[in-house]
Amino acid sequence: MHVAIIDDDKIYHVITRKLIESTVKPKDIFEFYDGQEALDYLLQNQAAPEMLPDVIFLDIQMPYLDGWQFLDSYSQLGLSKNIDIYIVSSSISSLDHERFNQSNCVKEFIVKPFTRNKLTEIMQGYA
Amino acid sequence: MLSNIDFLRKIIDTIDEGVIIQNIKGEIVAFNDRASDILEHPGGQLQGWTFDQASWVPVKANGEAFPYDEIPTVLTHNSGVSKKDILVGLKRPDFTIKWLRVNTHCMQHGGENVFFSTFLDVTETYNLQREIKYNKEPFKSGLKGSQLGVWHYSKQTDEVFYSDEWKTLLGYKPEELDNTFQQWVDLLHPDSRDYAIQVARQFLEGRTDKLDLEIKLLCKDKSYKWIHSTGTVITRTREGKPESVAGTHKDITDTKAIIELLKASEKQFSNVFHYSAVGMSLVSPDGNWIDVNPATCNMLGYSKDELLRLNFVDITYPNDIEPDLANVRRMLNKEISTYSMEKRYIHKEGHIVWALLTVSLVWNDSGKPKFFIAQIQDITNSKELITQLEEKNKQLKIQAIDLENKFEQLEEFNRIVAHNLRGPVGNILMIADMLVEDTNAAELYAPMLQEATTALDNTLGELIQILEIKLTKNVRYEDCRISDVLSNVLNILKPQCDGIVIKRHLQVEELYYPKLYLESIIYNLLSNAVKYRRTHVVPCIAIKTYVENEAVVLEVIDNGLGIDLEKYGHQIFKLHKVFHKGFDSKGLGLSKIKTQIETLGGRINVQSLPNKGSTFKVVF
Fold first, then answer.
1. How much is the pTM?
2. Domain map of chain B by residue range?
3. Does A33 touch chain B (CB under 8 A)?
4. pLDDT tens across B501-534, in order?
5. Does A120 contact chain B (CB < 8 Å)?
6. What pLDDT does residue A33 have?
7. By the number of CB atoms within 10 A of the CB, which of A12, B74, B155, B215 ranks highest?
8. Which ipTM value was assigned to this complex?
9. Which CATH number fits domain B2-121: 3.30.450.20, 3.30.70.80, 3.40.630.30, 3.40.190.10?
């Protein structure tokens, strides 16, 4: 399986990669540092489902294209592959949580820190 | 004997009546001059003349020819009886009739019967009477339904005739009223009775030619009707006094009521004019006051006499003269028939009186302007209240904006706390987790831990800075020379400014503002403009200051990369938001100066198009 991390925090990237690698054995981990990068990648590979991630861990606060803007563009892509998107954010803003409740393409809102237990719980569904 | 007759003839020639003496054969044997006139036999040819020779035939009052036996002289001749006051008409060939009143006597003269006749021409009187009589009937039917009552009074009989209409006009049946003068007197309203009687007497005594009276008469239902009574003389006595008079009655109650109403409304208008709390005035076409009511005087502080010597322009606030005159011109051109405007007058004591003025124009019959009717309502109080209200609204708006800003700032704080504090803290927690599991990985995680704690420290530092701005600590207002500040900033940015065209348009040179903030604002705006330039055009930056709505405005205009406001508009002034890749951007500057500007009550906004440029506008 393929996992994608979209977050502007480099340390988070390193630790989360370690965490994922030690929990499941994904075929590949795609790392993006803002929404635009991720969107560009998805666009380029929309014809090749094997290159698309199965799960995305998405941050909200990012430069250029933030999590919500990414989701707006993503929902208009109409990709052939069904991707499960998890928001992983340190945001405790009620506005963000409200938006999550109204969106229908996000599976869960996970508040940072992202723990091994949480990751294991999620990954069990893809065993 | 003859001389006796001659003598008698001389006497009787002088009287008005015609006198003839006929013999038994009907031949005229003696006559006076008047007789030949009346009998229309010219110049004394009556001697031996008989009536059969006349050009006329005798007729009776009804116009029929007199049977021979009934002719008065024949009657007397046959019977010997005298006849008195017999009306005889002499019908001429042209069918006109001369009417005579005839007396006949039989006398013995010299043993012979002779017949003595006297006759008076009564044509005039007779015709008049007939005229009255004949005319009565058509009049009567003509008057029916005309709602005119008719009356007639004859002095000779002292009788008054009131027509049925006369009586029904007042609601009476014909038999319910007497045909007497007293009846009329009884019906008169007590208030005007004496006057009406006096006028009627004057008319009946011939002292006035016509009767023309407006009286109130009692109706059967006890109400009074206004009656217009007119009268005219029908016949007069020889002395010229009215002998019979007649006239009409017309019900003018409705007209009277309307007149009363008009009078009342005139009075009302007069009352309104004088007692109204609204200033009312009449103004001549050239602007002079013709009449003003007390309210106008009160409002403007002038006495009526003073105002009447003034033109309205004299006491109008200078700025309001032209708009008012423009309205007047439009009204004189008949473009409008009335206008309302708010204007200011100058009170006699010098202060301003705000008024709501409503003007209409009255034209005279020949189409020339007669006068203006102006209503002036003092709205100074309302104006003041409105001004106060507007002031309060303004304050509320400012407070609302302030609150909105504070709310936004709190949101921003929340975001910073979440992202920039919880972010690094989360990382530290995760690293701690990893270290617990694998103590050998310390070498890998140590630099990360260091990085995370440094980020945490930096964020705390930024937060303190923002808090300091918000608490307006270390802020000292001073007179700043904008061009000096600008020069300082450009000096700092000099290394990056190579090849950039910089234009200054400083309409405002001085600004009372914290110098540190002003430097920060100008530095951040200019450094952004310098940083985000386009590579294939000559970079150009313009700096403008000017006054708008009594506030100083600073604009920084560039022709650089611009920002897609549709995408990023709501984030542009937020902390750690960056919009261009490949630059050393932290997303600090705009966020900081927005906080600075808004904390001091100003605002900042941006207009931008990608690859065209940006304009940042600061209102201090």
1. 0.41
2. 2-121, 127-257, 276-378, 384-470, 477-619
3. no
4. 889 999 999 999 888 889 889 998 998 898 888 8
5. no
6. 92
7. A12
8. 0.80
9. 3.30.450.20
